[in-house]
Amino acid sequence: MGRNTALIIGGGPAGLTAAYELATKTDITPIVFEKSDLLGGIARTVNYKGNRIDIGGHRFFSKSDRVMQWWQKMLPMQAVDEDAPEITYQQSRRSVDADTEGPHPETCDRLMLVRERKSRIYFLRQLFDYPLKLNADTILKLGLWRVMRIGMSYVRASLRPIRPERNLEEFLINRFGRELYLTFFKSYTEKVWGVPCEQISAEWGAQRIKGLSIRKSIAHALRKMLPSRSNDVAQKEVETSLIERFLYPKFGPGQLWEEVARRVEQHGGTIRMRTNVRRLFVEGNRIVGVEVEDAQTGEVERIDGDHVFSTMPVSELVGALDAPVPANVREVAEALPYRDFLTVGLLVDRLLLTEKGAAPGSGIKDNWIYVQEPDVVVGRLQIFNNWSPYMVADPSKVWIGLEYFCYETDELWNQSDEQLVALAKEEMERIGIVRQDEVRDATVIRMPKTYPAYFGVYERFDEVRGFLDGFENLFLVGRNGMHKYNNQDHSMLTAMLAVENIQAGVTDKSNLWDVNTEQDYHEAKSEQDIAEQPATADCEPAGAGS
User: Fold this and answer.
1) pLDDT for 426
2) What residues contact 481, with CB distance under 8 A and at least 6 apart?
């Protein structure tokens, strides 16, 4: 079993990408160990009575040609309607005929939808565009005096930026000015992370916000006013926070990762669900095997392998090593902070929010809404109907997800499902989004260690990284595997590069850590990668589900 075998801990985007790349491009057999009963990690889709929940919301968009093509190889893009006869895919413009190009959502289940992106901020019981637009509507809602203060504050920050940027607060003030930071960023960010912004590393902003600023937002708005003949799904020149279209699996992100797992097994790989990796066996500077436990049977066994990919939380990985660990490394690993996450799904008759000038009950088009109101605990609201209409069993209902950020030790996390549902209903009515008596069903989903955090001992993370990188056949990939707040595409790229390193005999891991430190993700394009075009539709009949 051990010869030419890769042991992959975790069936999320990074783990499954590694498995597929190994199974299709090498002679190494992947074995994936997933401790839960769902694939996709944070990008899973939970099915509750036919109503699907996307944990955290996943836009399928990347500045990497390789990732965009990889996704469409798994699930082809839908046929485009007559209103959008032309799509530019990166540098290549393609004419799209709805009768011949791409499957139709009404007749096929295995496909990517093309979705419009809309996100707004809920503040002062009103909806504000996100990113903020300096238009009459914003000025009216904020008030002229507050807008003037925001403008003057931004000018001051531009002329006299804080140097060096020591924390997230200073990072945000430099890009948006102190007044806008205090109005729209501070309270929401602290609601998410549970600590003041001045205690969070500026590195978080560099990864998540990158080049976005007021100047970039204004430039983007001006470009939108110019005539354009193309409907560019790729939008490679656009800041990630400003993209307006994205791809999305018909039944949510988990559908794609279930498809990837199917293809891994089709190519000889193995996916073992509800299997927990308890220990990693070490010989010298190599990991030679793992001890796993089957959650259903309780059976414990050792499985040997030549290569190990880990997406498990770094704190758990270090604790599972069957070898001496330096005291400083163990100290940092055990104290690494994580932010936990829970979603309350509510099935409601309607939302009380409507678009300006629209008829009551006509609904809004937002994918998610950032809840900036300080008098509620909820941080963000997803409207699953607007991610994909196929996420909802009854299209006459509205299926929403209320996102709460907390720690496993918090009172909120440890409340019963009934208490959390009652809190969610009460908060939604209090801020004017939902009537409690119009809630028809509800469920609660808890996701521990959703967000690796950039505060506390994180400033010493290099001590842990240096130690783990010393194992020549161990590859840390993915968000939790690297304790790095990666997007889905970043996680996939770390896995792809790790496989390439194995093929090339490279044991240095620097290129993995470089992903998501620059805008273009240090993408290396090979002729093979560019030549691989999205597959034609391999379609299941509509209604088959995922």
Assistant:
1) 98
2) 9, 10, 14, 309, 310, 311, 312, 313, 314, 317, 494
> Beta strand pairing status for 112-116 and 245-249?
antiparallel
Candidates 480, 348, 463, 349; CA nearest to 401 is 348
Give me the residue label for tokens 């209103």.
Answer: 83
Pairing mode, if any, of strands 321-322 and 380-383?
unpaired
Kindly report, residue by residue over 422-450, the tens digit of the pLDDT: 999 999 999 999 999 999 999 999 999 99
Does the CA dihedral 379-383-388-390 come out positive or negative?
A: positive
Which tens digit of pLDDT belongs to each residue from 303-350? 999 999 999 999 999 999 999 999 999 999 999 999 999 999 999 999
What does the alpha-carbon distance between residue 91 and residue 95 come to, in Å, rounded to a whole number?
13
Instruction: Write the DSSP symbol of residue 181.
Output: I
Q: What are the extents of the domains in the chain?
A: 5-41+254-336+454-531, 130-221, 338-452
Q: What is the Cβ-side half-sphere exposure of residue 68, based on CA atoms within 13 angstroms?
A: 21
CATH C-level class of 5-41+254-336+454-531? alpha beta
> What's the rounded Cα separation, in Å, for the pair 403 and 406?
10
Q: How far apart are the C-alpha atoms of 31 and 16, rounded to whole Å?
A: 10
Would you give the distance in Å from CA 28 to the centre of its chain? 28
Q: At what angle do helices 168-176 and 186-193 cross, to 10 degrees?
A: 150
Percent of the chain at pLDDT > 70 equals 82
Classify the phi-psi angles of 84: left when phi > 0, otherwise alpha if psi is within -120 to 50, otherwise beta. beta
Helix then strand then coil, in percent of the chain rounded to 5, is: 35, 25, 40
Tokens of 544: 């088959």
3-state SS, residue 488: helix
Domain 130-221 has CATH 1.20.1070: no
The number of angstroms, rounded, from the C-alpha of 476 to the middle of its chain's C-alpha atoms is 18
How many whole angstroms separate alpha carbon 308 and alpha carbon 287? 7
Instruction: Report the SS3 class of residue 86.
Output: strand
Q: Taking the chain, what is the end-to-end CA distance rounded to the nearest angstrom? A: 31
Helix H or strand E segment including 240: none
Write the CB contacts of 54 (distance below 8 Å, at least 6 apart in sequence): 45, 252, 253, 382, 384, 387, 391, 401
Per-residue tokens: 24: 């299709």
Residues contacting residue 195 through CB under 8 Å, at least 6 positions apart: 455
Environment class of 409 (CB within 10 Å of its CB; exposed 0-12, middle 13-18, buried 19+): exposed
The helix/strand count (H/E) of the chain reads as 19, 22
Contacts of residue 405, defined as CB under 8 A and 6 or more positions apart, other chains included, come to 191, 192, 193, 194, 339, 340, 341, 379, 451
Neighbours of 411 (CB within 10 A): 9
The domain defined by 338-452 folds into Polyamine Oxidase; Chain A, domain 2 (3.90.660)
Put simply, whether the predicted model's pTM sits higher than 0.90 gets the answer no
Of 268, 267, 287, 266, nearest in space to 277 by CA: 287
